[in-house]
């Protein structure tokens, strides 16, 4: 039976046994029963690792044990951006063959190097998923005195965070304008537009743009008020250099969020993607909502 190439231990991990009877036991000193489940990541070079061992020893393109190149890429000019690491994965959920774990390894490796950006990464994921309530909770948790987001600090900061991470953590205004170094400098506004989430777009415009108040539907203000969110005051010029209008942000290809919406519209009209996915931005192009208005 193969063992982990990093720690030489069996390819299993201990987890707490699922026991509903534990709730009826009032003895708090009773140790929770544990069981073992498979934890096996088999690389293309045939070396096996525990998932955590692979994360701790990961070397981007090569097996940590034998230094064999474990990446694969489709042929073509976009190969570099489509790097894959295909593995056979066996865990509590069963066996999965030829799973691409490169995005997960890339993300985890980045967070281990820059733990202070964990909330930034979570923010972008919420923007992609369209979870505007989670975005608000995350921003509220950043700082008790972040007056730009609102005074209703009902969300507790995670007690498990390391002190050093807290000292280096980003402010709410920095998180809103964070751009993803792993995905072409995509901002939260780019991510929300690309995934068709208008509720998130309105929220980001409310909190991080100078879009005139009359441009917002009344429902946006009503929902924001119900969630304890208020619009930030206009920044002084010096602050605007540090915290630019979110509509001015461009991704790694020089595109504004409006450029993304325009591309989606064009593909939808050409029937390359579903009409609902692209045409959701019908009426938004050229209105100054997704890009800074042109100067006269």
TrEMBL record:
Q: From what superkingdom does this record's organism come?
A: Eukaryota
Species of origin reads: Dissoconium aciculare CBS 342.82
Acidic residues bias locations: 16-25, 147-167
Q: What is the lineage of its organism?
A: Eukaryota, Fungi, Dikarya, Ascomycota, Pezizomycotina
Please give the residue ranges the record annotates as the region Disordered. Answer: 16-37, 147-172
User: Can you name this protein?
Assistant: Uncharacterized protein
């Amino acid at each position: 039976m193969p063992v982990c190439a990093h720690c030489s231990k069996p390819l299993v991990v201990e987890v707490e046994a699922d026991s509903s009877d534990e709730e009826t036991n009032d003895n708090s000193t009773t140790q929770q029963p544990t069981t073992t489940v498979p934890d096996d990541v088999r690389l293309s070079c045939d070396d096996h690792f525990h998932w955590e061992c692979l994360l701790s020893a990961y070397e981007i393109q090569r097996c940590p044990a034998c230094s064999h190149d474990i990446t694969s890429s489709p042929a073509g000019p976009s190969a570099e951006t489509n790097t894959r690491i295909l593995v056979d994965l066996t865990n509590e959920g069963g066996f999965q063959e030829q799973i691409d774990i490169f995005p997960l390894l890339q993300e985890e490796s980045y967070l281990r190097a820059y733990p202070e950006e964990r909330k930034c990464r979570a923010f972008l994921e919420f923007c992609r998923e369209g979870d505007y309530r989670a975005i608000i909770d995350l921003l509220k948790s950043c700082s008790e005195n972040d007056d730009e987001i609102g005074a209703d600090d009902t969300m507790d900061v995670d007690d498990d965070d390391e002190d050093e991470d807290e000292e280096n953590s980003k402010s709410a205004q920095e998180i809103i304008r964070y751009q993803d170094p792993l995905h072409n400098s995509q901002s939260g506004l780019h991510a929300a537009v690309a995934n068709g989430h208008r509720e998130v777009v309105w929220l980001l415009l409310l909190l991080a743009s100078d879009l005139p108040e009359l441009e917002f539907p009344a429902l946006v203000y009503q929902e924001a008020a119900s969630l304890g969110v208020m619009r930030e005051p206009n920044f002084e010029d010096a602050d605007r250099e540090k915290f630019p209008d979110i509509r001015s942000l461009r991704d790694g290809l020089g595109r504004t969020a409006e450029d993304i919406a325009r591309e989606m519209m064009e593909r939808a009209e050409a029937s390359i993607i579903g009409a609902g996915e692209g045409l959701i931005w019908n009426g938004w192009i050229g209105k100054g909502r997704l890009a800074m208005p042109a100067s006269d």
